[in-house]
Amino acid sequence: ETGVTQTPRHLVMGMTNKKSLKCEQHLGHNAMYWYKQSAKKPLELMFVYSLEERVENNSVPSRFSPECPNSSHLFLHLHTLQPEDSALYLCASSQEADSGYTQYFGPGTRLTVL
Amino acid sequence: SQQGEEDPQALSIQEGENATMNCSYKTSINNLQWYRQNSGRGLVHLILIRSNEREKHSGRLRVTLDTSKKSSSLLITASRAADTASYFCAHQNSGNTPLVFGKGTRLSVIA
User: Fold this and answer.
1) Are the C-beta atoms of residues B28 and B45 closer than 8 Å to each other?
2) Distance between A32 CA and the closest CA of chain B, angstroms
């Protein structure tokens, strides 16, 4: 266990559904991240939050909407997704939002968009 | 692209053998990190090596960094079946920039 939990672990949704992914870290970290991992592609950084403030947004489509209500919780709200959005979505946290710090990853949510 | 590249893409060895994976990058870096991922799970941090370091050890793991060649290697000695996983390098470019991950090396250790 890395101290980062994600729910649900698996999610199947239609293109018109609205769903949310949840991430919680129990490490007292100040930074949290969302990554997308697709087959045969590098890990893609989606969003970075530092002390509940978004500090990085890598040109992610608006159908992905992050929310960070406090430094321990991070959500990814999904709306009108496309089949190509099917992937493993990984949440991570680190002491600070500086890549000199180790990132601790959750187990991921396997998302399938039909 | 500033993405790192791992080499080889896949590696299959017998238990007890050593496994070497390489990583190259294109820009000046602050640090380089290696992560491990079991199938369908999250990544686990293995080692961080800073740009002014040349070698680090952690148990059966040895990481080297050659900034003149913009490359790093991860050596796993006396491999075990439980080492079967994907291994990723990630580097931080100069400045406070996010980690850039490579595509990974898929290691299979056969008992």
Assistant:
1) no
2) 12
| One pLDDT digit (tens) per residue for chain A, 114 residues | 779 999 999 999 998 889 999 999 999 999 999 999 998 788 999 999 998 888 877 789 999 999 999 999 999 999 999 999 999 999 999 998 887 889 999 999 999 999
Instruction: Please say whether the beta carbons of A110 and A11 come within 8 A.
Output: yes
Question: Is B84 in CB contact (< 8 Å) with chain A?
Answer: no
Total H helices, total E strands in chain A: 0, 11
Q: Which residues of B touch A6 (CB under 8 A)?
A: 42
Quickly list DSSP for A5-48: EEE-SEEEE-TT-EEEEEEEE-S--SEEEEEEE-TTS--EEEEE
